[in-house]
Amino acid sequence: MSKSVSIKVQLSALPNNPGVYQFYDSDGKILYVGKAKNLKKRVSSYFNKKQEYGKTRVLVKKIHSIKHIVVATESDALLLENNLIKKLLPRYNVLLKDDKTYPWICIKNERFPRVFSTRKLIKDGSEYYGPYTSMKTVRTLLDLIKSLYPLRTCNYDLSKEKIEAGKYKVCLDYHLGNCLGPCEGFQTEKEYHDQIEDIRQIIKGNLKSSIQTFKQQMKDFAEKMEFEKAQRVKDKIDVLENYQVKSTVVNPKINNVDVFTIISDETHAYVNFLQISHGAIIRSHTLEIKKKLDETDEELLQLGITELRQRFNSQSNEVYLPFPVTVDDGLKVTLPKLGDKRRILDLSERNAKFYRQDRLKQIKITDPDRHITRIMGQMKSDLRLSEEPRHIECFDNSNIQGSNPVAACVVFKDGKPSKKEYRHFNIKTVEGPDDFASMEEVVFRRYKRLLNEEEPLPQLIVIDGGKGQLSSALKSLEVLGLRGKIPIIGIAKRLEEIYFPDDPVPLYLDKRSESLKIIQQLRNEAHRFGITHHRNKRSKGAINSELVNIEGVGEKTAQQLLKSFKSLKRIKEASLENLTASVGASRAKKIYKTFHK
């Protein structure tokens, strides 16, 4: 049975239920795992239409067999898909970049529980809070707890029988006031567990309960005239309130909420997760996702939400999102538009942007190829091109008051100057300062030569100027039969507008856009290169005219002198003997006499 018939039969057998599908190649290797609200419709769509993206077309060609798993709901499909991707690591699925172990805060399952940080989860009935994305956060929390509550740090088995038998003696921590001595029965189990309950609330971000408890203690000590003890409790209240001020960034009424936003480019997406409890951010983490099949932001955000909630064991029953996506059943979705909720969503987005910027700076140093690929992909998208502009050429005219008109062509390969391919043009067919006609001439000369020599053509031409210069360049491309074959744009200096052929409305790129920065760099380099040539030519013309004015010196002799001495200054300072060696005795005497009157 041929592959097409086999696939056809497999498609006809698919149900119209939600579930997860898996694509395999002819060797039985997993290619892709996906989820669907309707398995039959989603999987059939891969084969019923021409795929827009090249990577997807390659995937479809390799599919040899299809497996599926039916589940009850779309949210179940989401969870199953996420687990299968991590387990099977299919070639065409997105790559979640994170394999490190994160720290947790453990409240040990003991009669008098210890509280400490750990990276290992042991299923012994102990409570684990986290994981935290930063050890610094864990230390800050544990330092806060330690300063407020005297807890034991020893690992003794403090059973009732052993304490009553007097098996243990208090250690130095007791004498320093860091522990109240439960090992000798100086602290009851109830008192200790009341402290642990307060600690649970602090870890969850709810400081209100602890502050109220300490305020009551302070009041009781004050009524008993025990002012030193009251002052010590007041210090603890100050520590808690100071911590609360630092950590509270939104309305304290916002409680147990997960916030997710996404920033993406051509190759990667960055999903930021903020967890909020009692108005305080208790966790922030950004997940980097490598794209494989031009996935949409909706698909990637959905994947990110599932992965991050699983990874950090989130129990929140509400999420704030920038746009609607399918989430777990029973999870409330809010799309904030203004107020505190909108501000916290903006904060999450800002975190994702900062993370992306940091990663791009690192990648620029450690992985320049990926950096170039990303910028080229961005330019392709921003400038509506059919392919990445790996080879770009930019033209600029240079003339001052119509004298010595010249033009420059600079070449960028992979976003960087290729200086050995830069070219100067002396304008030959245009009289006077006519930028439009000059542009028409140099574009024609440049591409006629490339065609004659069968050299590769650029994937983008940039013209320094607005609609007029762009139209002139287009005339030359039309004559050469290249119009429509090479994308061409004009950049006007005033507001950095990008003009396209046959489109009167310019494109305005974001001033911080990397695409605009590359175009500006091209334009500036072409201007610099053209001006340098123009100055050299003008300077040479001035030297020539000064030499030609000497009796007996013509254009040819002037050129010979410049060739020998390199500059007018050296000619003026040259000895009679050196001048004679260059142009003969008769002319040498006249030149020497002119400059040594």
UniProtKB/TrEMBL annotation:
Q: Which Gene3D superfamilies match?
A: 5' to 3' exonuclease, C-terminal subdomain, GIY-YIG endonuclease, UVR domain, UvrC, RNAse H endonuclease domain
Q: Which SUPFAM superfamilies match?
A: C-terminal UvrC-binding domain of UvrB (SSF46600), GIY-YIG endonuclease (SSF82771), RuvA domain 2-like (SSF47781)
List residues of the UvrC family homology region profile domain. 263-477
Q: Which InterPro entries match?
A: GIY-YIG_endonuc (IPR000305), GIY-YIG_endonuc_sf (IPR035901), GIY-YIG_UvrC_Cho (IPR047296), Hlx-hairpin-Hlx_DNA-bd_motif (IPR003583), RuvA_2-like (IPR010994), UVR_dom (IPR001943), UVR_dom_sf (IPR036876), UvrABC_protein_C (IPR050066)
The keyword DNA damage is annotated on this UniProt entry:
yes
The primary site where this protein sits is cytoplasm
Stored PROSITE patterns:
GIY_YIG (PS50164), UVR (PS50151), UVRC (PS50165)
Superkingdom of origin organism: Bacteria
Q: Which GO terms describe its biological process?
A: nucleotide-excision repair; SOS response
Q: Gene Ontology terms, cellular component aspect?
A: cytoplasm; excinuclease repair complex
Location in or out of the cell: Cytoplasm
**Domain UVR stretches:** 208-243
GIY-YIG domain: residues covered: 16-94
MF terms per GO, please? DNA binding; excinuclease ABC activity
Keywords per UniProt: Cytoplasm, DNA damage, DNA excision, DNA repair, Excision nuclease, SOS response
Report the protein's function.
The UvrABC repair system catalyzes the recognition and processing of DNA lesions. UvrC both incises the 5' and 3' sides of the lesion. The N-terminal half is responsible for the 3' incision and the C-terminal half is responsible for the 5' incision.
What family is reported? Belongs to the UvrC family.
NCBIfam families recorded: uvrC
Q: How does it assemble?
A: Interacts with UvrB in an incision complex.
- Name of this protein: UvrABC system protein C
The species this protein belongs to is: Flagellimonas lutimaris
Source organism phylogeny: Bacteria, Pseudomonadati, Bacteroidota, Flavobacteriia, Flavobacteriales
